[in-house]
Amino acid sequence: MKKLGLPIALLHMTVAFIVVGIVAFVCADYENEKNDSRHLTEATISVWDVKTSGGPKSEFKDPWNSNADLLKIGEAAFKQNCADCHGSGGMGDGPTGMTMTPRPRNFALATGWKKDRKVSNIFETLEKGLEGTAMGSYAGLKLDEKFGLAHYILSLGPRPQSDTTADLNRVGIDPSQPGGGLGPRPEIPIDLAIELIAES
């Protein structure tokens, strides 16, 4: 039997070290993955919140009823998201709005609305947009920003109509529940949430 030459022996030793290294790396990586998966189950995220509401739940017991805090939230959200089209006073005369056909809603008027002037209808419009107009969906806003916007927009015109329980139910708000029952949705691991959002 011939003795292996030094280069071949070194090659065999190198291959053995590489195999041992790979096995050690895979085992260590598996342990890290097990630890990471434990963290993922603790740090979960609601896809619904990310894709639609932009926030987990309302800070208010009954956000469909106006209050000073919601009006402040709504005014700030209006300046940031709405004034460019609807104008700073909500009269449909914002710089971008002046170039649109049809023109954005004049919130100071009680007439000409596609739907009744109610919190539920504005909330629904913010969720879904308004077909046949340039008004897109603002579903990504936080829940209290949407309620705040509804109240602020209605404050720019005459006294609005009150919502019935049926009106609120129609848009998914349950007034018998704190925050309208619009709290966090079932949670899933962050990596799956990111994957689902990337696919949409």
* Rg result: 28 Å
Overall 3D shape: elongated
Helix and strand succession?
Answer: HEHHHHHHEH
Major sheet: order of its strands?
1-2
Strand content: under 5%
Number of strands: 2
> Mean pLDDT score, rounded?
79
Tell me what the structure shows.
This protein has helices at 6-42, 47-53, 68-81, 83-86, 119-128, 143-155, 165-170, 190-199; strands spanning 44-45, 188-189. It is mainly alpha-helical. It folds into 2 domains: 6-42; 59-181, Cytochrome Bc1 Complex, Chain D, domain 2 (Orthogonal Bundle), CATH 1.10.760. The chain has a two-stranded antiparallel sheet. α5 (119-128) packs across α6 (143-155). The longest helix is centred in the first third of the chain and has 37 residues, at 6-42. The N and C termini lie far apart (66 Å).
Topology:
Blueprint: H1 6-42, E1 44-45, H2 47-53, H3 68-81, H4 83-86, H5 119-128, H6 143-155, H7 165-170, E2 188-189, H8 190-199
Antiparallel strand pairs: 1-2
